[in-house]
């Protein structure tokens, strides 16, 4: 078992992250001992409930099943969850437990941060993307008709239980979308300022086949590396005042791809992989990096066979990028590579892109 912890110094918040590939029945015991003596509401993805509900065996009255899909991260489900908790008479001393991917984690976290002005919550991520990214760091959100994640809070969980066992049953596309975020960490590693030298790029090159074949030990190690990098960033900048922006590498153009295709055609990971390729090209054009690094990066990406995404009308893409919540006035914020595994934030004018 790997035990990590996140220490947010500004407000002395700290929480453990457990990474253990274990039987789901054992995992349940650990979760329950964490909430011992308190009442709790489990918010679980429908798919995960179908696959693991019988072994997890949480009492029915403590379970809220959330349908799968990004469209479920909405105000209506927020209302249903909080009303269910009210009906159960949960107090501020009780807890929410999120079991699922990013949608379940983000929505539960948001509900937890506002229920009685804040109730404890535990993250149990079951997708690769949630294991390496969304379950760690305390971003919570719901989607609106005006865009994704526009209503949300920074609210750290009380604990994160990562069990790579869940990844065995993850469908290929969902697994790949998580790999998109994994590859991202390799291009930002040095900028994460982690004390330990983790060398994710080497790990990805050497273990690509085992990763794709979901070798359990390799996946555990991979998750551990990514989580250590994310912890390092979040500990230094919880609320995205500066350093945390680097986690958005590939996201500026990637979010525009998701928007222009109405969130239907490509997964988040697929879109950000294309966004990273765009960022590498832009960095070469602006003489920030040499072409060799761009080719090396493209080789790493190729190892994981991501889907090819065609180019879109640049003027439309710029318009969408200007609407991003990270954009300021008419400037678009891009995280661009400046050296091997190093990135920096740049504010660019639309004319720089055309
Ligand atoms: N997913 C980016 C972040 O947590 O900041």
How would you describe what is shown here?
By secondary structure, the protein is α/β, with parallel strands linked by helices. Helix content is 45%, strand content 19%. Strand 10 (332-339) and strand 11 (342-348) form a beta hairpin. Helix 7 (200-212) runs antiparallel to helix 8 and helix 9 crosses helix 12 (314-322). The longest helix is centred in the middle third of the chain and has 21 residues, at 216-236. Bound molecules: glycine. Glycine binds next to loops. Glycine (GLY) binds at residues 133, 137, 139, 244, 247.
Largest sheet: 7 strands, mixed
User: What strand line-up does the widest sheet have?
Assistant: 1-2-9-6-5-3-4
Oligomer: single chain
Outline: globular
Mean pLDDT across all amino acids:
95
Order of helices and strands: EEHEHEHEHEHEEEHHHHHHHEEH
- The span between the termini is 50 Å
Instruction: State Rg.
Output: 20 Å
Low-confidence stretches: none
Percentage of β-strand residues: 15-25%
Which class best fits the helix and strand makeup?
alpha/beta
Summarize the topology.
Layout: E1 2-8, E2 13-19, H1 24-34, E3 40-45, H2 46-56, E4 63-66, H3 75-87, E5 95-100, H4 102-114, E6 120-125, H5 128-134, E7 139-144, E8 147-154, E9 159-162, H6 172-188, H7 200-212, H8 216-236, H9 251-260, H10 268-285, H11 291-302, H12 314-322, E10 332-339, E11 342-348, H13 350-353
Parallel strand pairs: 2-9, 3-4, 3-5, 5-6, 6-9
Antiparallel strand pairs: 1-2, 7-8, 10-11
The protein binds glycine.
The site of glycine has 5 residues, from loops.
